[in-house]
Amino acid sequence: GQNIDQPTEMTATEGAIVQINCTYQTSGFNGLFWYQQHAGEAPTFLSYNVLDGLEEKGRFSSFLSRSKGYSYLLLKELQMKDSASYLCAVRAGIGGFKTIFGAGTRLFVKA
Amino acid sequence: DTAVSQTPKYLVTQMGNDKSIKCEQNLGHDTMYWYKQDSKKFLKIMFSYNNKELIINETVPNRFSPKSPDKAHLNLHINSLELGDSAVYFCASSQEASGGIQETQYFGPGTRLLVL
Q: Residue B36 has what pLDDT?
């Protein structure tokens, strides 16, 4: 089967750096996504990794290690508006791909 | 100019009723999806269509029937609604890039369904 694990909740301080981890077990890995979802809103795309390494995009970076089944999302210079859920999603499958979402990590940014 | 739109945004109905949710995307994408997000915020795929053809059909009660009249539209009809169907339903779309790499999914604003 396919399984994605990420912490349920995290708290961090405005201006700090936070790392949200995601581990996965899948067959036929074809890419990993991070999405941000504010309460009551739709998920929005943050990053995509298909090869090992770090992808940087402004204050957000995402890392992937396919051999370890591991990814993290790094948020720098935290702002209050970064308080949201962060969803790790893996596209995988054999004979057909589908995207499986983790349960999400709720991040609380405090002043 | 909404990329992925859904109607209605809110739906409150009685158990046993039949209801439909509509989704439209103006991004020119080939693939559309329906997801269910329950009270625990777990986002689970229900169906996926590629060019009007069903390609993913998860273990969903057959009371749920998707219909894709064209590749820009994917509607979801639910028969005999039950209390457990209360959730937020998200429509999404994406485009498959060359080399089989999946491009990002764009989500609609969601339909909040409450079954009483």
A: 95
